Every structure is written in C-alpha cells, then in structure tokens.
Amino acid sequence: MSIVTVELTDGDLSELADRLRSACREVTPTVVRVTVGGGVLDAGGAADPVAAGAAAARIRQTVDRAGVPSVITASGPVSGAGLAALLTFDVALCTPAVTFTPGAPAAALACGLSGALVGRIGSARTRAWLLTGQPMTAVTAQDWGLVAGVEPEGSAAAARLAAHWAASPAAGLLRRSVDAATRLRSAESREFDTELLALLREN
After folding, report:
1. Domain covering 3-166 assigned CATH 3.90.226.10 in the classification
2. Where would I find the H helices in the chain?
3. In the predicted model, is pLDDT for residue 165 greater than 70?
4. Residue spans per domain, the chain
C-alpha cells in the first residue's frame, strides 16, 4: 500500500505539478492524494495563463500515468487552470467556503478548460458558465458535479477515502473500468469489465 500525498499551503500550480511528479517517481503509488490549503488554486494563472495551462497539463499527465485512484481537496478559491487541474482527479472535495470561477478567457483557453468542463457538467452548463464567468459556491459545484463532496474537514475526509482505496484492489479496478467505458464501445467495455472481475476474484 503506497499512498502518494502532496500537501500545499497555497495553490501554486507549478509547485503542485513538480511535487506531484517527483512523489510519483519515488514510489509506485496505489493512490494519489493532494491537499491544497487556503490559497487560490491557480495562483499566478491570470498573469501567465500559458504557464498555468502547462502546469495543469503536467498534473493531468502525472495522474493519468499513475493510473490509480486519486483525490484532491481544495480549501481556497479555485479558478482557471486550477479548475482544469482539479477536474483531472477522480474525486474532488472542497470545504464549504470555497468558490469556483472559470477565470479569464485566456486562462480557460490555455488549459483546455472547455473540454474538461463539458465532460463533467455538460455543454449547456459549460457554455453558460464560461460566458457569464459568475462565481459558483461549493454547494452549487457539488450539485453540478464539479466536486463529489463539500466537507468541513476536507483533508481528513480525503485521507480516509485514500486509506479505504489503498486497502482494497477494487478501487483501482473500478477506475480502470470507468476509463474503459469512456474509450470503448459498450460491448467492448462489458468484455473488459468481465476481465477485471476475474482479477478482482483472484485478490
């Protein structure tokens, strides 16, 4: 059982990308857990959206390469490339005071935010939100599916979830099942699930 944990006191995406990549190189993770403190997740993104977008892309690549269940907790505002990075994780949690904004147009375009949002909340909500840019509360974010839960003690909730995943092979197999369902036709996805079920029974 190897839970890769990265904790930041602010929301610097470049630092998060570097620390996450380094941690995943040191060990082979079974779970990835990230906690971001009270700073804005996308710090500096407005000043340099291209760099912020590149950092979000590195985070996505690291999480995808790890191929294991992942959870992120945000305790401060989430915006632009920070939002794109947050949507990379299998489960996103936030504290009740967190607000979400799509960020400046340049930031949204630099990090491919539209595609990430359409996949999570649908095209109609994505279009309306990007065009109005209105701040979103944590409760609305949960209702829309941007986050899986609003937790007063977000870090503790994420730690419990990560420990639960790490204790069982089922979480990793279910993640692979969902990944396959997004890439394969229905019949192929069902065949893949049958293979995963056999692996689960072996464990």
Report:
1. yes
2. 13-26, 49-66, 80-86, 105-110, 113-121, 123-132, 138-144, 154-166, 170-183, 186-202
3. yes
4. 3-166, 170-202
